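Exercise: predict the fold of this chain.
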Amino acid sequence: MSNLMIALLATLAYFICYGGNWLFGQCMIERPIIVGTVTGLFLGDLQTGIIIGGSLEAIYMGAINIGGATSAEPVSATVMATTFAITAGLSLEEAITLAVPVGLIFNSLGIVWRLIGNLWNPWYMKLCQTGDASGVMKLQLVSWFVNYFTRSILIFLCIYLGTGAVQAVVSNLPQPILNGLNVAAGMLGAVGMALLMRMLVNKETVGWLFVGFVLAAYLKLPALPIAIIGVVIAIAIGFADKKVFDVKQSLAQGGGAVVKSEEEEFFQ
């Protein structure tokens, strides 16, 4: 596969996942595990795409962008890491370590696109003032395409011009540096999980964390059975909470006598 075709396919994966995510209401196809899978599929190495995407998902799952406070842009990081791993011979550790600075750089560049996006505002205001709903929809599609197409051009240039450079750099790296990259890549997944736990774990849920640890460390259960057990427990707790909520709602609406009569019938 030529370098041009590789760059085009990787850029297409970027455009589909990143642009499509925001076109269809943030449907989460911009997550690294999806982006890596799509990129690997386009480049003919689905297994590598899934592995790198899953590894980067563990890093970025705790990185949440709220309002103007953004931490990283994982789509470009995943596309470039997967592409260079498949075409430039990067190992998993090297690809993951490459992805982190790429995500940070493209996150900073995203500010430029947000500023450019403000140039569309006068047209939006004019269409809204005239009540032209059809025009607003058309302008939205045009601005969406321009936004993500221009982003994709930058991805294309980075991959098309950077494949040879990445191959040259990796082939000439000393072994101590490669060892350091391997260690850093091993730590990044733990950092991502720590960020996620910081948001989710509290005094009410920390007990379930230790239950999962016991299942994994002492009973040697794989991740999938533990996840299934967690889903079952979550569903059971959800139904129990719903029953409590329904009872409280019934009491608040004057249904205390009905609840009392049902309890009396149960114990009779």
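Check your answer against the key: The CA atoms of residues 13 and 39 lie 5 Å apart.
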